[in-house]
Amino acid sequence: MTKLSVNINKIATLRNARGANNPNVVQVAKDCERFGAQGITVHPRPDERHIRHQDVFDLAEVVTTEFNIEGYPDKRFLDLVKKVKPAQATLVPDPPDALTSNTGWDTITHQHLLRDVVAELQSEGIRVSIFINPEVKYFEPAKQTGTDRVELYTEPYAANYHQKREQAVKPYVEVSNLAKEIGLGLNAGHDLDLHNLQFLKKSIPFLDEVSIGHALICDALYYGLENTIQMYRRKLDTE
Ligand SMILES: CC(=O)[C@@H](O)[C@H](O)COP(=O)(O)O
Ligand SMILES: NCC(=O)COP(=O)(O)O
């Protein structure tokens, strides 16, 4: 089964637009779970432009599925994650001013940093995933960091899906088979949506989890949050 983790960053973006507490990210997380989300993902960025550190503490009190916190592993992020102890931390190489995530780790150059961080978080009982591009050369070095999983950066797949989906998914299938062979769990995310999700799942049936935010929240404007989560779940329901 591939789990659907709903990324609620955009709910916080909307809340922050007015300064009060509407929409309430804690209530939305609870509702996402009630509507079928199998995990909740947040990516607290250093400028707190959407998810704030306090949100992460508040969410940790209520999330009953799988809480996944994404971010660059600086001291502030690591302190937060170690206090909250989510089910999973996803390490992303974003600089502080990144508009959004736009690449995975160079696991060769940053192997020592990643190895230390992975060990530090695992010693707190937190599963670790490393955000990664679909390039074979990064997988064995990723494995050597001791990480439990990798998360495939799917923006290039999403960007090319409508032109030639077989070609767009090919590097992902290749690295996923490699990940399976060397014993890495497999997540995927970024720009997945109702059009491209099912083909990814069919091409890589053993995906452990996808985290989806931007498109899912946009779709919810039209279909409603409950319907939308169920629509995404059905796209993953191909077994
Ligand atoms: C790692 C990843 O792909 C997601 O965190 C994505 O970047 C969402 O972050 P934003 O909502 O800040 O764009
Ligand atoms: N890890 C990817 C994620 O959480 C959501 O990315 P997106 O769907 O907002 O592009």
UniProtKB/TrEMBL annotation:
Keywords: Cytoplasm, Pyridoxine biosynthesis, Transferase. InterPro entries: Aldolase_TIM, PyrdxlP_synth_PdxJ, Pyridoxine-5'_phos_synth. It catalyses: 3-amino-2-oxopropyl phosphate + 1-deoxy-D-xylulose 5-phosphate = pyridoxine 5'-phosphate + phosphate + 2 H2O + H(+). The record marks 151 as: Transition state stabilizer. Gene3D superfamilies: Aldolase class I (3.20.20.70). The keyword Protein biosynthesis does not apply. The keyword Transport does not apply. Its main location: cytoplasm. It holds the Pfam family PdxJ. Its EC number is 2.6.99.2. The active site is at 43 (proton acceptor), 70 (proton acceptor), 190 (proton donor). 1-deoxy-D-xylulose 5-phosphate binds at residues 45, 50, 100. 3-amino-2-oxopropyl phosphate binds at residues 7, 18, 191, 213-214. Pathway: Cofactor biosynthesis; pyridoxine 5'-phosphate biosynthesis; pyridoxine 5'-phosphate from D-erythrose 4-phosphate: step 5/5. GO terms for molecular function: pyridoxine 5'-phosphate synthase activity. It is found in: Cytoplasm. Coiled coil: none annotated. PANTHER family: PYRIDOXINE 5'-PHOSPHATE SYNTHASE. Catalyzes the complicated ring closure reaction between the two acyclic compounds 1-deoxy-D-xylulose-5-phosphate (DXP) and 3-amino-2-oxopropyl phosphate (1-amino-acetone-3-phosphate or AAP) to form pyridoxine 5'-phosphate (PNP) and inorganic phosphate. HAMAP family: PdxJ. Homooctamer; tetramer of dimers. Belongs to the PNP synthase family. This is Pyridoxine 5'-phosphate synthase. It comes from Algoriphagus sediminis. The gene is pdxJ.
